[in-house]
Amino acid sequence: MKIYNTLTKKKEDFIPIEEGKVRMYVCGPTVYDYIHIGNARPAIIFDAVRRYFEYKGYEVNYVSNFTDVDDKIIKRANQEGVSASEISERYIKEFIKDRDALNIREATYHPKATEEIDGMIEMIETLIKKGHAYEKNGTVFFRTRSFSDYGKLSKKNIDDLEAGARIAVDEEKEDPMDFVLWKPKKEGEPAWPSPWGEGRPGWHIECSVMSRKYLGEQIDIHAGGEDLIFPHHENEIAQSEAANGKEFTRYWMHNAFLNIDNKKMSKSEGNFFTVREICQQYDPQVLRFFMLNSHYRSPLNFSRDLMEAAKNSLERIVTAVDQLEYYKEIINKDKVLSEEEGKVIKEAEQLVEKFMDAMDDDFNTADAIAAIFELVKLANISCSADSSLELVDTISDKICSLCDILGIIVKKEKELLDEEIESLIQERQEARKSKNFARADEIRELLRQKGIVLEDTREGVRWKRV
Ligand code: AMP
Ligand code: ZN
Questions:
Q1: How many angstroms is it from 214 CA to the middle of ligand 2?
Q2: Which residue ranges form the domains of the chain, and what is each CATH number?
Q3: Whose CA is nearest to atom 21 of ligand 1?
Q4: How far apart are CA 381 and CA 101, in angstroms?
Q5: Before 231, cis peptide (omega within 30)?
Q6: Is there an atom of ligand 1 within 6 Å of 26 CB?
Q7: pLDDT for 180-237, tens place per residue?
Q8: 270 φ/ψ sector (left φ>0, alpha ψ -120 to 50, else beta)
Q9: In the prediction, which pLDDT does 194 show?
Q10: Gap between the Cα atoms of 186 and 203, Å rounded
Q11: How far apart are CA 187 and CA 342, in angstroms?
């Protein structure tokens, strides 16, 4: 199995630290708003990476954090006149809804920055003790020049960086390249007590601390979007390696951007669509398929045309599987596998190999999906109501299990019957009456996922299939 490592700029054989186990950390979202589909790209890609490792028999410890204290969260809280934690809790809940809709599995651990402050203080103290950090009037800085490997991930030279950097007048750094580990409390901001006075952590320290706590001092894979290479991941390396005295991460994986008109999709540029918006227009599986249909290190341009193409492609797989399910019901079950059909199964096995080869080659999901399409084509040509059950079963199983490795759902769920919908609506009304809004929302979401939209009117609840 080969993985492209940003650190060495090469594809390398994957050798885990501990046999049969993968320790993996994926930088998670800052929870101040709904996530946009650019944020969904790493979440989907690295979920597929995890699923593939698990398929290969590895036990994966998958950690992904929530950055729940940050300037953007505080700004939003002040705008709305609520606490920062109210904002972050709200958008963690919304993130979970998007995650579930996209069939992204829950991480083994989803630590929150605000619940790990003690660990951050402890690591900062270690860094100060070792001479890698210093305090000036309540702010603690990392002494970047004290870490001789600084720049090894982003291939930046500290002298070049410094030439372009300047110390702002109000800063008290020893050197322009030093970065903040702890900052003092400002009016209207959340703060925690620390040896340097009340304050809050800088952004980078949380990942070094959570990664060590949940995965150990050395991990196999650290991942995120390529915008995180510098400074975030470079700073994480400096903090972790300076504090622990060991190599931090073996394989650094970074996804390329999801773009619009060849520009990175981002909140600050305003050129974004939320996952929520897109999933109102398309089945969430279409978005997942769209992301996986190109290699994670290639930039991906978002457009309606490409989403339509993804929708049609996915539909081709779903229809083929549906057809095979139908054959299974009507087929003459006594028919034995013919010699010709045996050859078809051999061909299908080769296509499965092709899928695995593509995934072993730095998770090339685009080529892996191409192999699934060849299987679909084979099914369409070779299977019919006259086939043996063994053939139809084998081909159908292969298509479904390959899609399952990628987390793409292709088996149509049984549609809800009208009575089932009515009874769920009834339950939702009762939940609302007893002020159990969480359950009421859950039911609405469950129905939405099944393509049922509710409308609250004065005459009561109306529903329709979309
Ligand atoms: P943030 O909430 O901005 O920290 O982003 C969460 C994750 O989404 C990080 O791994 C980012 O690198 C990634 N990300 C943000 N924008 C994009 C984009 N347009 N394309 C791909 N990944 C992105
Ligand atoms: Zn991080």
A1: 14
A2: 2-255 (3.40.50.620), 276-405 (1.10.730.10), 418-465 (no CATH)
A3: 257
A4: 33
A5: yes
A6: no
A7: 999 999 998 999 999 999 999 999 999 999 999 999 999 999 999 999 999 999 999 9
A8: left
A9: 98
A10: 16
A11: 74
Total number of residues shown for the chain: 466
Q: What is the pTM of this model?
A: 0.89
Please name which of 59, 40, 38 lies closest in space to residue 103, comparing C-alpha atoms: 40
Ligand 1 pocket test, pick from 30, 32, 37, 39 with the greatest ligand atom count within 8 Å of Cβ, gives 39
Q: Which residues of the chain have pLDDT under 70?
A: 167-170, 413-416
Task: Count CA atoms within 13 Å of residue 15 on its CB side.
Answer: 2
Mutation test residue for ligand 1: of 95, 227, 230, the one with most atoms within 8 Å of CB: 227
Residue listed under structure tokens 């009016």: 187
- 73 Cβ below 6 A of ligand 1: no
Q: Is any ligand 1 atom within 6 A of the Cβ of residue 227?
A: yes
Q: Write the pLDDT tens digit of every residue in 106-163.
A: 999 999 999 999 999 999 999 999 999 999 999 999 999 999 999 999 999 998 888 8
pLDDT score for 414 = 63
Nearest to 425 by CA among 448, 408, 402: 448
Cβ within 8 Å of residue 159, ≥6 positions away: none
Measured by CA distance, the residue closest to atom 15 of ligand 1 is 39
Report whether residue 27 contacts ligand 1, using a CB cutoff of 6 Å: yes
